[in-house]
Amino acid sequence: MTVKLNVWTHPSTGQSRIYMAGVGGRFTKIWIEEQAPDAWNCTLQFRARDEFKTRGEIGNLLNDAERALNELAGHRVEKFSEALALASKQAVVNRKPPEPKPEQQQGGLER
Question: Which domain holds residue 59?
Fold first, then answer.
């Protein structure tokens, strides 16, 4: 499974979310939000939305998402800041160089 992380920041509240592509189906949105530390000092909150899945299926998808994030990191991720750093690192690795403009391509058009 290829998982892609995308960071989105809410324009008015400033809250950051990390959306996970590649987990779930076509109609599934899975994202991670920051929460106050829980009893295990974890600050990740996995959320999902899919109107075609049951509550049990959504729970399984959330478990899959957490497992995929941990596999991507190579260890258990417990802090939102770690997930955010991983998403930023992945964005740099996946960034493609810009396509050259036609006038910049070698060989040009012959007249």
Answer: 4-96
